[in-house]
Design brief:
Radius of gyration: 16 Å
CATH superfamily: Alpha/Beta hydrolase fold, catalytic domain
Strand order of the largest sheet: 2-1-3-4-5-6
Number of domains: 1
Low-confidence stretches: 209-214
CATH topology: Rossmann fold
Distance between the termini: 34 Å
Structural class: alpha/beta
Order of helices and strands: EHEHHEHEHHEHEH
CATH architecture: 3-Layer(aba) Sandwich
Shape: globular
Number of helices: 8
Length: 214
Amino acid sequence: MKKHAFIFTGFSKKVLSHNAEKVVALLKEHGFTVDVFSGSRLNMLVNSSLEFPEEGSLRKHVEAETGRNDYTIAIGASGGGYGGLMHSIYAGASCFIGFSSFTNVSLASREIDPRGAQILGVMDEVILDDSRRDLGVHMDEQKPKLNVHLYYPKGEPSDTYQAENLKRFENVKLHPQDSSKHNMTDISFDVIPAILSILQAEGVAEERKLVPSE
């Protein structure tokens, strides 16, 4: 089976507080080829990234890699998770894992989640139709088969709103964590075990077994 992973980093160019290299190492250990995309402050990785700066080139690349592989997974964090899920919906990815990911940047959503006003202003130019800034609309239209897993701090109202925005979909599973910070640094949360558990549930990673010492 040919497997590929896309990592859409957050505003800090990380996956929450973790360097992307750790996530890459985990995925490669289980036979994945990997792309890492950064530059979510530009347009939440919807139209482009630092690695694919030409408008529309990022989407073309994701679609091409998805078509070349038997299984594709996207992992997104914070603002990068917004573009990551959008690309997953349209490319036909197998699975998406989001960590404190944005799912709605419409004008109405900003009454509840006003974070990142400058970046949200840019999104008004990237997605001109305000009604299409909610990823729930795209899920309704495309009816993607991908499994969506959203990890978020249940004590942070904005992140909770963003995750619960998609709770009506049967293929979306919410994973609330006992945290009140966006990066969940107030608890001992590690993205690596979380990702590994999903890979195992998807049947694309072997369980790690402890080898008894001789």
